[in-house]
Specification:
The complex is a heterodimer of chains A (112) and B (403). Chain A is of the alpha+beta class. Chain A has one domain: Alpha-Beta Plaits (2-Layer Sandwich), CATH 3.30.70.120. Chain A has two helices and six strands. In chain A, the strands form two sheets. In chain A, strands 2-5-1-6 form a four-stranded antiparallel beta sheet, covered by helices on one side. A two-stranded antiparallel sheet of chain A has the order 3-4. Chain A is elongated. With 403 residues, chain B is mainly α. Chain B has 15 helices and no strands. The chains are: A alpha+beta (112), B mainly alpha (403). The interface between A and B is medium-sized, with 11 and 13 residues.
């Protein structure tokens, strides 16, 4: 089982969520985060003094899936989250050792 | 103080000053209401717009607008500038008190527009529009009504006690003409025409804003009696304030009941809009009676509750419901005087249509010209990131980014 962490632009959340729902992914955890990569920040002005803010609002999603589905899922995420402009985000994939569903105690792929 | 007419002079002026202070405070109400019903990334911009539009209205109406509205000229427009040509002796009350009371009404009309065009209109073109509204558009239609010319007889018999049409629907028509050109917020309507709600960020602010407006309305309507010189006057003012309050109260409850019935859940934002719609509706004749206030308040709020989704169907995106509250309820409140009140229907209808056409057309032209020269709408990226960063370079809630 794999964990997919995705950082995307906030206004793309609905598109990504709907696209994943279309291929059967119906659960995720979502965080409001700030981040920057190659996308530059912007400057702000407060009472005559200027300061730079590097961090842009982003949305992070955690999705845990079975190994077989990874490539398709990544493809769907990229397509729905992309705008073509700098700051579109990144996807990180890591291994998951174990999953447990709290309500039933199920483990393994049944708990995904 | 020699005789009773001195006392009347003093009290009349005092009433206007007292009312003016309450109506000024409505500027805070609008600022809080609009902030609460829009997103935090645009908050500082909306607040700046509200303080600036109030200030601009006060300045322009002093130098130009008051005279175009109340000065001697012709049936269409007055004349003079900076309060020239007025005498307190002739008027029987203080000119400056009169001005100070009138000017805050102009600011109210201007602030109606601010909510409808929020979150995607550039700030400076909006403020330039306010310059023209407060110096020319508002005063001209005011000249025909409160200025007494009745546009050469066309508006004879038209009655609007405190401004359901003259203030509120004027703001509404101006907002409507603006939003038609401006367009909806990005993402509000999807490809199939369904509405994607963009919820407000702060319900406590929206609520305190509404209650501030409710209280300010006691000055808006109460002091529009313009006279505190007799027992009849104080009785009338008491009736005006009580019925203003009644219309707001029934408006709030009407909205609560309707949203419960239609949507199965009471919607706070509609309850707030309902109270305001009741207030706008009674403003044309708050001296009529409590029964009248109840009827117009209930109907006004109901119209607003139905108007909100209707405007969405027309793809006219109004973040705060100003079109439903000020335009629709303003028209209703004006016509109601001729249906349930002491006026006549045809003169009320003529007033609504003539003033509506004038304000809509002149405003449309101004918005269009501003759009062509400066552009009304911010760029897509600016709208996505928020007006605060781009219009102001200052955010309302910056702390996460700093420490």
């Amino acid at each position: 089982m794999k964990k997919i962490e995705v950082v995307i632009k906030p206004f793309k959340l609905d598109d990504v969520k709907d696209a994943l729902a279309d291929i059967g992914i119906t659960g995720m955890t979502v965080y409001e985060v700030k981040g920057y990569g190659r996308q530059k920040g912007h400057s702000e002005l407060y009472r005559g003094a200027e300061y730079t803010v590097d961090f842009m609002p982003k949305i992070k999603l955690d999705i845990v899936v079975n190994d077989e589905d990874i490539d398709k899922i990544v493809e769907v995420i990229v397509e729905s989250a992309k705008t073509g402009k700098i700051g579109d985000g990144k996807i990180f994939i890591s291994d998951i050792e174990k999953i447990v569903r709290v309500r039933t105690g199920e483990t393994g792929s049944e708990a995904v | 103080m020699e005789n009773f007419s001195d006392v009347k002079y003093i009290l009349d002026g005092f009433l206007m000053l007292f009312g003016a202070i309450l109506v000024m405070w409505m500027a805070a109400g609008f600022a809080m209401l609009e902030s609460g019903l829009t997103r935090t990334k645009n908050t500082a911009t909306i607040l700046t717009k509200n303080v600036a539009l109030y200030s601009i209205s006060c300045i322009m109406f002093y130098f130009i607008g008051f005279n175009l509205m109340y000065g001697d000229g012709n049936a269409f427009i007055g004349g003079g500038f900076a309060l020239s040509g007025f005498s307190s002796e002739e008027l029987g009350h203080s000119v400056m008190a009169d001005f100070f009371f009138q000017v805050v009404f102009v600011a109210t009309a201007a602030s109606v527009i601010s909510g409808t065009v929020a979150e995607r209109m550039k700030m400076w073109p909006f403020l330039i529009y306010v310059v023209i509204l407060s110096s020319v558009i508002y005063p001209i239609q005011g000249h025909w009504t409160w200025g007494g010319t009745s546009l050469g007889g066309l508006l004879e018999g038209f009655s609007d006690f405190a401004g359901s049409t003259i203030v509120h629907s004027v703001g509404g028509w101006a907002a409507l003409s603006g939003v038609i050109i401006l367009g909806a917020r990005k993402g509000k309507y999807d490809k199939n025409g369904n509405v994607r709600p963009i919820p407000g960020s702060n319900m406590p602010l929206a609520t305190i804003g509404t209650l501030i407006l409710w209280m300010g309305w006691f000055g808006f309507n109460g002091a529009s009696q313009l006279s505190l010189g007799s027992k009849d006057d104080i009785d009338a003012i008491a009736m005006v304030m009580a019925s203003t309050n009644m219309a707001a109260a029934v408006g709030a409850i009407t909205a609560a009941l309707l949203t419960q019935i239609i949507y199965k859940k009471v919607d706070l934002t509609m309850v707030l809009n309902g109270a305001l719609a009741g207030l706008v509706s009674v403003t044309a004749a708050p001296d009529t009676g409590m029964g009248y206030a109840t009827i117009v308040g209930v109907v006004g709020a109901a119209l607003a509750v139905f108007a909100v989704p209707l405007f969405d169907k027309l793809k006219l995106d109004d973040p705060v419901g100003a079109l439903s509250v000020h335009l629709v309820a303003g028209i209703w409140g004006t016509l109601a005087v001729g249906i349930f009140g002491n006026g006549e229907f045809i003169p009320q209808l003529i007033g609504v249509l003539v003033i509506g056409a004038f304000v809509f057309i002149t405003s449309f032209i101004v918005w269009k010209v501003l759009d062509m020269i400066l552009g009304l709408r911010v760029s897509e990226q600016e709208e996505i990131e928020g007006l605060d960063i781009h219009e102001l370079g200052l955010e309302a809630y910056p702390e996460f980014k700093r420490h």
